[in-house]
Amino acid sequence: MDVPWLSLLLAVSLVGAFATFFTGRYARWAALAVSLATLGIVLGIMALFQPSLQLNGNACQQGGFQLCELHTWFTFASPSGGFSVDYLVGVDGISLPMILLSAVITLAAVVYHWDEEKDPHGFFGLVLLTNAGCLGVFVSLDVLLFFVFWEIVLIPMFFLIGHWGGPRRSYAALKFFVYTHVASVVMFVALLAMVFLGGWNSFDFVDTFGRQSTNMANLSAPVQALLFGSLLFGFGVKLPMVPFHTWLPDAHVEAPTGGSVLLAGILLKLGGYGLIRLASPLLPLGRTLLFPVMLFLALLSIVWGAYLSLSQRDLKRLVAYSSINHMGIVLLAIALWTQLGVMAAVLLMFAHGLVSGLLFMVSGSVHHTYGTRDIPSVGGMTARTPVLATMLMIGSLASLGLPALVSFPAEFSALLATWSDPRVHYLVLLPLMALVVTAGFYIWMMQRLSFGPPRGIPDKAHDLPFPEVMGMSLLVGLIVLYGILPLLIEQVIPVAAIFGIPCGAGTVPGATVWGACPSLPFGP
Amino acid sequence: MQVPVAAYLPEALALAAALLTFLMDAAGVRQRVVVGSFSVVLYVLALISVLGDLSVAPFSIFATVPKGLIDTGAVGPIQFSSFGLLWQAIFLSASLLVAFASLSEGEGEREVPIFYGLLALATLGTLLVGLSADLIFLLLSVEVTGISTYVLVAYARKDARALEASMKFYLIGALSTAISFFGASLIYGAYGSTALSHLRDLPPSATVGGTQMALVGLGLLTVGLGFKVTAVPFHMWAVDVYDGAPDHVSAYLAAGSKKMGLLAVLVVFAASVSIFREGSAWALYVAFSGLAVVTMTVGNVLALQQRTMKRMLAYSSISQAGYMLIGLAVATPASLAGTTIQAVAHVLMKGGAFLFVAAMASIGVGNRIDDYRGLGHTHPATTASFAILLLSLAGIPLTLGFVGKFYIFASAVQAQGLFIFLAIAGLLNSAVSVFYYARVLRIMYMVEPQTSSQGRWTPAVAHLADPGAGSTPPSAGSSKGANLGRFRAEIQALGLARWSAIVACAALTIILGIYPTPLIDLANNAAAHFLATGP
User: Fold this and answer.
1) Contacts of B441 in chain A (CB under 8 A)
2) Among A165, B82, B233, B234, which is most exposed with the fewest C-beta within 10 angstroms?
3) For chain B, what are the domain ranges?
4) ipTM of this predicted structure
């Protein structure tokens, strides 16, 4: 009998999250157990995942997904008979790296917060619930199920920011909640319109891939552009995409460290994932029509994010703004919609999740070691807290794209995809220059914080406690591992259930999947 | 086909609850436990009977209406339709909820039997609305509930605000009744009959009195019933009345009697809307779309500005009526099913929310939203329930409020054409509404409780904040024993009945939100029959 792996994953993470609320002072052990179990199941799923596309069996598998499960949730009344809303889940090469990221980041956050003192049962429960919601988004193949999980993520994050956050936490929590909810409502209208105007016969979007051309041909280019624009707004707020990014710095600065780690590590990826999974393949005419808009917003995010980071004094704010810069590159890579671009986007999301998670942990530790995150008022960290300074350095170097660390192959692929696309070509200079700025503000920040004579260091400042080292080390290990062997992820991504996607510079390993295109720099 | 007397069992039970309660009063039996439990038991029996008629699995052996009578057209002024029966179940749940939770209210002199008696009479009226197939019968049934609720609002005779609210309610109610009946008389003139089947089958242009007379009549009827549904611009009375009425009466007004107005509108118009849409008389159908948009928008915008909890809930209740009116304007099986699901959700959400307000008022928490600060730490179970109900009102997934809204909005998109704008307006509104619901969550969970020096916290609350353990502050009291102690203290302070009613509302909202299939099947079936055979 087949084990329902994905349901098992969702069940363990959801039930575990709710159970953790009631474990009192054993909460951290419960949270550790749940997050380890989740990670274990994810690794199991990775082991079962077939590294090439298996197009047989039911509609879901013919759509290119694996480990599919289908149950009818309820029926929507319709003049022409039932219209089912399903519990339909499955994974492909795009969602697999995302669920791995989600499980890893959650485990790291739990370990990092091992000594949490303020209502630990609530804290760990909410962290696990956020993870469960994100996992749900990444495996859902039904529009409504996708939206349900999408919205579930908001609630625990709202409470995480609002109860465990900094001084302006309740303002930030409210802003986060309202802002992202408005975006998801716009997204929801567009999704419903897609289902009904496109003449789907259920809310599932998998079998629509196979018949995408016939179904979506009902929709004229302007309608598709309207729908695509709405989805771009809905997903772009989460991403975040300039000019809809203003919730992010507030949410990040006020959130507790674990909250920031989840926010940057997983939640931002939901936006990019939605664009890849739903908006771009299902609305090809709209995507083509809005390509200039997407390109402009992506470049704007890249430049504006880098520029804003340069002027920050607050370490956490700096990392937050640099996220806007990095996610701008993700948006750029998605906008190109070539095989190389999509692969780069997924890889970069994976890399950014690990790296920004580490950097937010570092800024959290800086804050409670030195009592401030103000960069100019602290200096010479290397002398007093060498471990923390090392972590800061690894995170910063990874983030600015040093080779042999995970961001490098991702950013390189993204830039290569941009360069090799005749529509953009020389525009690659913009992100390249932004990369120089990125390197600049990271190195300048390290120089001020880590080196030079000790400054503004309280007497009782001590180096990192053990749990925080462990949490960070987990991420550092993966940053190095996937930096040296990006192939581990790269060979999975092309097993993606997206068809008819152009070559771009070249396709990625597993040429049976995306067609024979010239090979790739980091391919086998 | 002859209607057996047993078919009227739910109505008979409601009538018995009313009359016997008044007799108990005369006989001097006024203990809340006795009088209240009596009502609760009768409501439960009535509910079982109605569910039996609907063939809901475990109860179908209690069916009293012969199968051949359901959904087969009118028998004189009444008709048994699965749609009407489903709404009867909704009304009974609302009455049951309020009657049960009120068991935790204090004792009064004569108030207790008066309250339960009037509640039973109001319930009777709502049940009769579910049976009506004739305009006059319908309006008279609405009036039975109307008059009972006017008095119900004022049953606490010594409360000046309640008396004022009752007076306002009565005057507006009388006005709306007059308008409704005037409309009904014009309709009678135009159609030559008051049977609702005529409205359904005959386009206004084909009536004896011609299009104009019929349309004026229907327009007046819309206005008259619009007052009951609290559709904007006929909503002015609602907030003052909800605010002034005793809290558990507000719960009934929002959960029970308002749904009755909605069913009355549906019964009169939903089936006939299709005729209007095709005929020359599209004005009425545009009017419903406009009414829906204006109602939810005004309700939401005004709710945003409220500083007191009950007024905020009252305005949000108006906006919820707007969402339900979308279902009426679209008038497809899916949209009417959506309205029905949303009505069930609304009973749980608004009923539970007002009961929570009642519970908090009973332990001395003020009426302003700011007074609710920190309740999440002192009253964990009920506050969490209230939070779930608010999230459901906001339409967050895995709650029944989401399922209902999804159904309504999806049906509007499915109907295509200009209806898509109704869905967009609705969704934008629900996005706005998140702001004021989240603000309450923020106050309850993210702002520290007020200190006793402010004088708003009674000793009962102060005692709750520090359960058993003595010196343990609530934020650190995370161990299991302290949690249990806190729940026990909470139940003690709020009363077991009220506590469990609030928690049950939240639990049902979640359970039906995750597994809505049985409810959706019932609603789909009822709505399809309703549009096919009509009232």
Assistant:
1) 158, 162
2) B233
3) 5-447+491-533
4) 0.84
